[in-house]
Each structure stands twice: as structure tokens, then as C-alpha cells.
Specification:
- Helix content is about 30%, strand content about 15%.
- By secondary structure, the chain is of the alpha/beta class.
- It folds into 2 domains: about 325 residues, Glycosidases (TIM Barrel), CATH 3.20.20.80; about 110 residues, Golgi alpha-mannosidase II (Immunoglobulin-like), CATH 2.60.40.
- An 8-stranded parallel β-sheet has the order 5-4-3-2-1-8-7-6.
- Helix 6 crosses helix 14, helix 7 packs antiparallel against helix 10 and helix 13 crosses helix 14.
């Protein structure tokens, strides 16, 4: 017996010497100084492409003014200032001035909702993770939240009013069956929650904390996209305390990924990854980051948006490539209709991205940014709003458009994996493509992803000059962007 006890003690001592990450031994204090030392889980850093979903009661009116978010409908029709605005005028015309927002809940029926069909679309898109709005700023929950009903004093979740279904739970099951990670957006604040309006500290204690823990405990999400944090400091939200529980004691403590929206002091300072919204993302850097945006101007479905408002498949694919080349992830949003269907244009865009990734995903998933992210043509480079959190200047069509006199455009994007370099061109390359400042080795080989035949190339000083294969239109492996794979790069 003494012998076995001695071995046990030796094994425990060995585990301690191996470091705090072994067997989940690492514990984090309820301080940003400690929490920020936690590495972002590797699966998320490798995933690169996720799908955001804004869906809720606001999907019934599905309306916004140009360039605005339809999910802010309730807020935009509320208050004296709103009474003279276009949102209220529309609401009064369509539903009447005595129609409260809460009356949209019974109309949110999701009668055509098929979570398996959604999951199949997501799988075909090539996305590696999903982030669904568990609740937005209106407080309406897509799962049977007791806290929602209690604090609002009425049924205010999808099981008790509207669809009478656990929308979030059903999608979680379907998505995971496809091998895709499932995460949730969660708004810390709720515009008109009675507790929030009267006693914010009590709201955090009695509503937000138990509701957040219920969501995590029930469904074990691997991404938490927090939002609605800007009215209070993270200490008032008690975010450090909540994160310590999540990262120490929840079932997902080793795998969950958290963003940076935990208080008005926290963006680009605290959390697992930095967020930007309808912008250009970060120029580069070592800290994980993610750009989120819709396909048009709104996250939630807006019936006022036309085809011209939507980014083309080419633009979305080039955004993904550009963001990944700078070390980021793209979280691309869809806004389903209130009946539970994904608008066909959104489905089409996702499938088009997936078609490109089927050929070229090797140059996206699991890659890292190279010593330089892009190669420009000669001329003046356009301005880009790198590093801004919200709605920065970023026109991928301008950045990758045909070269013009005195105007530079991106000629090549770069990603890397091990000693392999991927050179991604946003146009079918010229017959001879020069890739600058690449240190190759005697074993280097160059191929084009999706093309069976070999690619001829030569060194020219520190440059690699590639002879682009002559292909017929039927032989071209994909559309929109093309990948040259260069092995054994030093």
C-alpha cells in the first residue's frame, strides 16, 4: 500500500512540474490580469470562418431605414424623439400607434424552421463555427429562460410564446451533428427590462448572472459573443467574476472562446479575441481577432434591403481571404425570416463561399499570417480603416480592383502553414506572376490548388516567378480567387 501511495505522490508531483495546463489544473482569478493570460483555444484560431445568426422577435417586422440594423426596431420606435422619425412612422402605418413591440412575439412563429436544413447549409458553406443570438437587446430568449419570464412579468422566450419550441436547443443539436462548433451571442443589457430600468445592480445579480449560467450549463457553447456592454464598466457587470466561473467551473472551461465585450472598458483590451464590426479588422498582430458583419447593411433580416445592398460572392470570398491573411477570423451574419427560413440570397452566398473553400480551404483553415500579408501593385494605395471597432472604411472591391495608372491594388494575399506559403491572387494571374521576396529551398515545389498539372517556376533573385498554366474556362478550378502553393519556404 505504501508503495502505491508513493507512486501516486510522485505522479502528482510530475503533473505539477509539467505546468498548469495539464488536466485542467489552471485556475483563473476574477481579475482581468489573470483571465487575459488564458490562451485562446486553438480550434478557434484555426477555424477562420464562422456564421453569425441574428434571429428573434424583430424578424417579424424585419424593417430598417437604409444602412441601419433591423434588430434595433424596438429601440428605434421608442421615446419622444422617435415619434418624428421614419421608424415610428412606418410602425404606425403598418401596425398602428397602439401596437406594442411585445405583440410581435405571438407573430414570431418560425413555422418553417428546419434546424437540420440550416445545419446542412452551414456545413456546405465551409463554416467551422456558428454563433446564434440566444437573446438580443430586447431580452427575448430563444430557449426556455425562466429569468426572462420572471423579470419581464410575461412569457418572453420562444418555448412559452411564439414558436413554442426551443429554437436554440434544436439548432445546437443539428449543428453539432454536422461536426460544427456551436456558440451563442448574449446581450448583457436589455433596453426595457424592468430590473435594468430600476436597479442595474439587482439586474446583474438576479437576472443576468443566473440566466447566463443557465444558458452555458444547458447547452455548453464553445463560443460566447457578449454584447450590449457599453453602458457600464466591466466591474459593474461583474464580468471578471462571471468569466472566472466560466473558465474554472463550467463544463466548457477548457474549450470555450470569449470575445472582448464585457464592459465599456474592455474592447481591444480584455478577453479571448478582439472584435470589429462592419470594418476592416486589425492590420495584423499576435492577439486573435474577428471581424463580424452582415451580407448587406443589417444583421437582422431587413425587407428594405435590395440586391444592390448585398455584397457579391466575390466580395465576401475576398473579405475572408484578406481577413485571414492578417491573422483574423470572419464571422459572417445571416438574418433568417420570422417564419424560420433563410433568405435565398443568403443561402446562395454561403454555398458560393463553400464551393470556393472546397478547392482552396487548405490555404485558409489552420493557417497563419506570413511576414507580409499582401503584395501591392505600383501606385498610391487606398486608405483602409484598420483597427477601428465599428464601421470603418473598407472597400474590398476597391482594394482588389483592376490596376489603374497611379492606383495600387492588392496583387497577392499570403497565408502560411508550416513551411508552406500560399499566394492567393484576386484575379486570374497574368501568364507570368512574380511573387516577391520569397526564400525557397532546393526542394521547393509550386502547384495551383485544384489543378492537377504541374506549374513551372523559376527563381529570380529573391523572387519566385511562376508560369501560370494555360487553362480553358472549363479547367479553371474555381472562381474569384486562385491559390498557388509554394512548399519548403524558409
Amino acid at each position: 500500500m505504501k508503495r502505491w501511495m508513493g507512486l501516486f505522490v510522485l505522479c502528482c508531483f510530475a503533473l505539477l512540474l509539467m505546468g498548469p495546463g495539464v488536466c485542467g489544473a489552471q485556475r483563473y482569478e476574477a481579475k482581468w490580469e489573470s483571465i487575459d493570460k488564458r490562451p485562446t483555444p486553438q480550434w478557434w484560431v484555426d477555424a477562420k470562418f464562422g456564421i453569425f445568426i441574428h434571429w428573434g422577435v424583430y424578424s417579424v417586422p424585419a424593417w430598417s431605414t437604409p444602412g441601419q440594423y433591423s434588430e434595433w426596431y424596438w429601440n428605434r420606435i421608442t421615446g419622444d424623439k422617435a415619434k418624428n422619425g421614419p421608424w415610428w412612422q412606418y410602425h404606425k402605418k403598418m401596425y398602428g400607434e397602439n401596437f406594442p413591440y411585445a405583440e410581435f412575439a405571438p407573430m414570431f412563429k418560425a413555422e418553417l424552421y428546419d434546424p437540420d436544413q440550416w445545419a446542412d447549409i452551414f456545413h456546405r458553406s465551409g463554416a467551422k463555427y456558428i454563433v446564434l443570438t440566444s437573446k438580443h437587446h430586447d431580452g427575448y430568449c430563444l430557449w426556455p429562460s425562466r429569468e426572462a419570464n420572471r423579470s419581464w412579468g410575461r412569457p418572453w422566450n420562444s418555448v412559452d410564446i411564439g414558436p413554442n419550441r426551443d429554437l436554440l436547443g434544436e439548432l445546437t443539436e443539428s449543428v453539432r451533428a454536422k461536426g460544427i462548433e456551436m456558440g451563442f451571442y448574449y446581450s448583457l443589457y436589455e433596453w426595457y427590462n424592468p430590473l435594468w430600468v430600476t436597479d442595474r445592480a439587482l439586474y446583474v445579480e438576479k437576472h443576468m448572472f443566473p440566466q447566463f449560467k443557465d444558458l452555458v450549463t444547458r447547452y455548453e457553447p464553445t463560443v460566447i459573443f457578449s454584447d450590449g456592454e457599453w453602458d457600464m464598466h466591466s466591474s459593474e457587470w461583474r464580468s471578471e467574476e462571471l468569466m472566472a466561473w466560466l473558465l474554472n467551473d463550467s463544463a466548457v472551461k477548457d474549450r470555450v472562446v470569449i470575445n472582448d465585450r464585457w464592459g465599456k472598458d474592455s474592447r481591444h483590451k480584455h478577453g479571448g479575441y478582439w472584435t470589429t464590426e462592419y470594418g476592416a479588422g486589425l492590420a495584423s498582430g499576435t492577439h486573435p481577432w474577428e471581424e463580424c458583419r452582415g451580407m448587406a447593411h443589417s444583421f437582422g433580416y431587413s425587407r428594405t434591403e435590395s440586391l444592390s445592398d448585398y455584397k457579391s460572392a466575390r466580395e465576401l470570398i475576398l473579405m475572408l481571404i484578406d481577413i485571414v491573411s492578417r491573422g483574423g477570423n470572419l464571422l459572417l451574419d445571416i438574418g433568417p425570416d420570422g417564419d424560420g427560413t433563410i433568405p435565398v440570397i443568403m443561402e446562395e452566398r454561403l454555398i458560393q463561399i463553400g464551393d470556393w473553400l472546397k478547392v482552396n480551404g487548405e490555404a485558409i483553415y489552420g493557417t497563419r499570417n506570413w511576414k507580409k500579408t499582401i503584395q501591392w501593385t505600383e501606385g498610391k494605395r487606398p486608405e483602409v480603416g484598420y483597427g477601428q471597432e465599428y464601421k470603418a472604411k473598407y472597400d474590398i472591391a476597391e482594394l482588389t480592383g483592376p490596376p489603374a495608372p497611379e492606383k495600387a491594388v492588392i496583387d497577392i494575399f499570403f497565408t502560411t502553414k508550416g513551411d508552406t506559403l500560399y499566394a492567393i491572387t484576386p484575379r486570374w494571374p497574368r501568364s507570368e506572376l512574380v511573387i516577391e521576396d520569397v526564400e525557397v529551398s532546393p526542394n521547393t515545389n509550386v502547384t495551383m490548388l485544384g489543378v492537377a498539372q504541374s506549374v513551372e517556376w523559376r527563381r529570380s533573385g529573391r523572387n519566385v516567378v511562376v508560369q501560370v498554366p494555360g487553362l480553358s474556362i472549363d479547367e479553371v478550378p474555381c472562381q474569384h480567387a486562385y491559390v498557388l502553393k509554394i512548399t519548403h519556404v524558409r
